[in-house]
## 1
Amino acid sequence: MTSWVTNIAINPNTGLISCQIFKGFFFKFYLLHINNLSVCPFLLAIIGRLLDCLGTKISKIMATLGVNIDHIANVRQARKTVEPDPVQFAFLAELGGADSITVHLREDRRHIQDRDVFLLKETIKTKLNLEMAATEEMLEIAKKVLPNYVTLVPEKREEVTTEGGLDVKSNVQYLKNFVGNLKESNIEVSAFIDPFYDQINYSKKIGFNFIELHTGKYAELSGSEQHKELLRIIESTHLANDLGLVVNAGHGLNYNNVKKIASINNMNELNIGHSIVARALAIGLEKSVREMKSLITSN
């Protein structure tokens, strides 16, 4: 469907919405306000849902880019040497426009090492997103590092990469205690989950601040099946917004499939690693990050 609304901007401070129609005519209106000119999030969620149906992007709210540098560490660990250093490459990613740096500290330390995490926290200029399993060992490390936020992920030693979302529904009480412990150290917590309603609802009940929707299935599909999965991700984003959760997404996103995910209204951040590092082998990390950032913000 081609939208007759070509551009919409929201000023959260005043509640003013400006709309451009047919690239020539403008109109403005105000949202209802509550609590001293605070924009009602429920109304914003409704507007976001309508705009996704129209294919219209809220220009004020665009997704940011989190760059996963695990694969830099993969190359280093292949020879058990000191280079390439993922800490140095995080600097290049930030030069390219990365809004945050993501690393997954695995139980078997197959790529990222403890030293990397501590140094990144001290040296990067953006934000540190620490992916980890919900284990006591990782809890203690997180409380020492104090990353900007932690993303809890499932982890199996035999997998090449994370194969699916965390089953929060089956681990409610354990995860509620675990998340609460992280929050006591002022660490915001995200759950990497599949885009299913029950997983989103239980993420809210447990107390997560964020969710990260697993886009692996979307990335693997094509044609009408991929479109169906895209609609599932869109509806999952709206449901999470309605519940007050901030929505990130990631896994399998690349230069060919990222734009439709990035265009979802109220999508907060996309975490991308493999495709950026793969392209960096040809053109350099700073440029490959810059190209991905341009795709995400050009909607």
Note: The first helix runs from residue 41 to 54.
## 2
Amino acid sequence: MELIPENPVFVVGLPRSGTTLMRMMLSCHPHLAIAPETNFINSWMRVYGHLDPSRPRDFELFWQALAQSDLLPSFGLTPEAVRREVEENIEASWRGIFTAICRCYAARTDKPRWGEKTPRHAEHLETLLEWYPDARILYMQRDPRAVVSSILAKNWARSSRFPHVHARRWRLSVRAASRQAAQDRLMMVGYERLVRDGEGVLREICAFIGEDYHPDMLTRADAPRYRLYPDHEESLRNFPVLKPLNPASLDKWRGHLSPVQTAIIEDQSRPELSALGYEPVAGSAPASWRIAYLGHRMLRPFETVAKLPWAKVFKGGAGTMIRRLLP
């Protein structure tokens, strides 16, 4: 089956780099429906990548896992509707399933053009551009010290507590995005510029993705409609991206990071740190940060093993691998 050409808009970047803010701004455009995080390529395909959805048995094994998860209900979708989209309008493939989820989300919000926001899809830019040659990708670029400070403050279940891990990931991610930006299908969006000049940056983004600028993107008055859980009042009250843009918040990391943490982040994020205009502040770092850094490096493998999603690996990956071999 020949697939219908798609021109989606993807929002990627490191976690805590402004991807949610950008998703909300784009979602308030009358033509754009940017789905929340599917983690489709970086998580679902990573666990179930040994399956081939074009084979009916493999498709059923994957679909059982997807339909029993809370992903589709959290988007306001039913497994039946998404499966019908796959079978009737697309094809049984990883690309087809991902497209069906995003298309159904766009239909639910009554928007003609779809997109998706998963920060970690920044690690899979080649796959996105291979699947959708006419796609446009917005890569959110933010000061690595602010990114790492925010990640450490959140203390997510699988988030590393070691700053050098996030700083190195920032450096490699920015480097990969810069290469793709040279091909004119990816635009690097500076978070700091967006906060200081929201309308100006949004107009540049609209020109890049081929849409007219709409003032609702800046005001985000309709943003509560596009939250992951739109009926959850507590999340409405504590939803930072509904607040006005505040340039004063850009340097909050200075009061949250220790001098040693700052020195480690700056060391691990060079040379991209300076190339993107972020001024180092640590200066000549004391010997103590080298000792801390070496300690972090030694402990990191133990943290990696402890934080692996073992239940998902065994139940999802190993479980389906065994079941597909059974008669």
Note: The longest helix spans residues 287-307.
## 3
Amino acid sequence: MAAGLSAGAFAPSGLRLTSRPASSRESLWRREDGPHLRGAVFVQRQVYPELDGPSFLGPGPLGSPVTDAALDSLAEAGANLASWSGPGPFSETAPFEVDPVIEDHIATWLDRCLTRGLFTTLCLRSGPGRSAFAFHPEESWYPARLYDDSLWRDEDKQAAWIRMVVWTLERFGAHPACAGVLAMEEPNGMDLGRPEVWPRMAREIVGACEGRSLGAPLLLSPDRWARLEEADALREAAGPAPVLITHDYSPWRYTHPNGAAHARFDRKSASQAPARRLGAVGVLEFGAPASAPDLTDYLQHRIDAYEAAGLNWAVFRWTSGWTEYEQAEGGRALSEVPGALAVLRTGFAANTVRPTRS
């Protein structure tokens, strides 16, 4: 990608390529005149050579690498959001200091998105007391020593996580491509028998952010892996200020088939979009296997629901462009399915705002 390429170079003709200053980026999440952000998800984690080998997730430090071609293709399709789910910038173990490698990676990611006219949300997946493998409990493909969910039982690690969220907003929130920082990707304390932890952390995060010039808005997800069913409880705990981010994999039997057999998509079993009483809300993950039947019907149904409710949305997921990884794990890369891509392009065409350099 040429260094001199202007922001929004891939935007369809006729779009208003207007920047959003830091003080008004909250308006990107207004439902009254939304949605404003439509795009796709990229997921990364730290590379462990002893587990991943020399090339499966790339050379590191994070993988799989997101190629320029992958970001270009998302922008060319008309999206204006590349939601990034990856490691937080604080170390997972004491003394919970900033990892300059991850800090540099996030800074570069923001610049890469801006160059292509894409907003991004920084969704903190791992950090003090929580490893990337906490998303894979009871699985055996990685060494057990890499699993860590001790955050939920350790108040020092909880406090460090809260500091990490505030630090991330202060460090990156003013970047014109940053549409928000998600304090924790898919919190799951309730499923681990710690239902009291996340509501308290959410309140403390909101309190720690008050009175600070952060640029981008704070985003919070409900417990139980960002389930909509827990959104009311989170709103009550966190108050009206933060944007709530839910993940929508409804109906579960369709989006997560058990075994080789795929269920047909049943519109009646799909959940309703988050109610307007919840205030500012977005859906930053939804999707199904690329091989699922009725895929275009499913995508159109969910997008229509989000559009009617004024919700920003991001599909899980877009290809990383890293061939070795995608050949093995590309089963949910909907950008590689022509019919699905056509539906997404149509949805992306409604975008009217992109970030620009100030």
Note: The chain has one domain: 22-348.
